[in-house]
Design the sequence.
């Protein structure tokens, strides 16, 4: 297990500390997760760190959706990572449990949508806002102003 609070990811000349919370939902909100399908999904994503530099630290299942806590290098976009997750897991699930396709009227395993949020060991949004507010050159300018864009 990875320690989020103290874990910097060094990759060549880059350092990253951003984690992502991603939630994917099964098409039509079908309750298709069980011990077998969960095992297939977990086995599919197990090698993502070595193959794609995507480190998945936690996976949580409900009957019709799954949550991931993961991190990836900034060379990828969130959409690219989500696309890869959906493509690779659906392919394996359909190959190993072909009867699932019958319940999904058309053969797509995941909905088109998703949820993604960033997570940092440095704190939540309020902590980061306060950190930014306190930056500045004290002698030259009293304090940088925080602008809401």
Sequence:
């Amino acid at each position: 297990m990875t320690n989020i609070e103290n874990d910097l990811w060094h990759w060549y000349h880059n350092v990253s500390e951003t984690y992502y919370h991603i939630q994917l939902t099964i098409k039509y909100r079908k309750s298709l997760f069980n011990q077998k399908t969960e095992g297939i999904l977990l086995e599919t994503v197990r090698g993502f760190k070595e193959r794609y530099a995507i480190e998945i630290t936690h996976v949580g299942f409900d009957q019709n959706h799954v949550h991931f806590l993961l991190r990836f290098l900034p060379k990828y976009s969130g959409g690219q990572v989500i696309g890869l997750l959906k493509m690779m897991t659906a392919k394996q699930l359909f190959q190993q449990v072909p009867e699932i396709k019958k319940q999904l009227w058309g053969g797509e395993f995941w909905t088109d949508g998703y949820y993604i949020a960033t997570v940092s060991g440095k704190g939540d949004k309020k902590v980061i806002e306060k950190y930014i507010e306190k930056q500045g050159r004290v002698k030259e300018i009293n304090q940088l102003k925080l602008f809401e864009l």
Q: What stands out?
A: The helical segments are 35-45, 48-52, 78-96, 125-133. Residues 1-5, 141-145 have pLDDT under 50 and may be disordered. The domain at 9-121 is CATH 3.30.70.1290 (Alpha-Beta Plaits).
